[in-house]
Design goal:
The protein has an 8-stranded parallel barrel, surrounded by 6 helices. It is globular and about 45 Å long. It has 284 residues and is an alpha/beta fold. It has a single domain, classed as Aldolase class I (TIM Barrel, Alpha-Beta Barrel). The protein is built from 11 helices and 8 strands. Belongs to the HMG-CoA lyase family. This is Hydroxymethylglutaryl-CoA lyase like protein. Pfam families: HMGL-like.
């Protein structure tokens, strides 16, 4: 079964003007009507690092979750953030960005890879106590701009370390949008065959023109979990100067359905959410 994860947090985090808290909440409430498996709605990180998301707790308090079927995911960058997020029963998943690039790990969380792996272990232990599930994002999962060593087998080495910590969900991220379809298929093929007990996700960044081919390649490699953001908004503000947007959810849905996958999505509510994006992300 295909899982769709909608990522308004990722879509919003790099927007320079502050989006009003009530607007954020109204938008996420609309997304909750669509039927996504999970909404990546906010983050518990330093407001100095990501000022756009400094109101995550307030947004959470404004969400209408009484009839929502979607689960909520919040990104954390350290144990303190994980502890803060774990206090909220409404949050099901904690997401942590682990990079296969030493350079990017420092840029993103101000830690070395070895330090980040220790943090993953600490957060995993916390999740087991608090009844949460840790989703680890492997940043720079398809190569990076820093001329560091990379291969699908390197990804497998990282996955093995996470497997030893009993992690169940790993999302491989094309942080700077440079992965080609052949590499995407190979990376997922290697991981899904070596670790069939782990749920692998694709957090791809892409132009609209390149999205379909990349999604199909991930499917061929065995991926069944896909992140997206309506209209392709977003991108990582810590990677490169020029943001490469997220996979547009509407293109993702069309592609998956075109490949014969039945998705439980309310298309009328999806249409309403698409109408809202112009207002939510507009500076005016």
């Amino acid at each position: 079964m295909i899982k769709l994860i909608e990522c308004p947090r990722d879509a919003m985090q790099g927007i320079p003007h502050f989006i009003d808290t009530a607007v954020k909440a109204a938008y996420i409430n609309q997304l909750l009507e669509i039927g996504f498996d999970t909404i990546d709605f906010g983050s518990f990180v330093s407001p100095k690092a990501v000022p756009q998301l400094r109101d995550t707790e307030e947004v959470l308090g404004l969400l209408d979750l009484h009839h929502a079927k979607s689960k909520l995911l919040a990104i954390v960058a350290n144990l303190r953030g994980a502890e803060d997020a774990s206090h909220f029963d409404e949050i099901d998943y904690l997401g942590f960005p682990l990079s296969v690039s030493e350079t990017f790990q420092q840029k993103n969380t101000n830690r070395s890879i070895s330090e980040a792996l220790k943090t993953v272990e600490e957060i995993q232990n916390l999740c087991e106590v608090k009844g949460k599930t840790l989703v680890t994002y492997l940043s720079m999962g398809f190569g990076n701009p820093y001329d560091e060593a990379y291969s699908p087998e390197l990804i497998a080495e990282f996955v093995e370390k996470l497997n030893q910590l009993d992690l169940k969900i790993i999302s491989i991220a094309d942080t700077v949008g440079k992965a080609n379809p052949e590499l995407i298929e190979k990376v997922f093929e290697v991981q899904t065959q070596a670790f069939p007990e782990i749920e692998f996700g694709a957090h791809l960044h892409s132009t609209a023109a390149g999205t379909k081919e990349k999604v199909i390649s991930a499917l061929k490699g065995g991926c069944k979990r896909f992140d997206g953001a309506l209209n392709g908004y977003g991108g990582c503000p810590f990677a490169e100067n020029e943001l490469v947007g997220n996979v547009a959810t509407e293109i993702l849905i069309d592609t998956l359905e075109g490949e014969g996958h039945e998705l439980i999505i309310n298309k009328a509510e999806l249409k309403e959410a698409l109408k809202l994006t112009g207002f939510v992300f507009s500076e005016f």
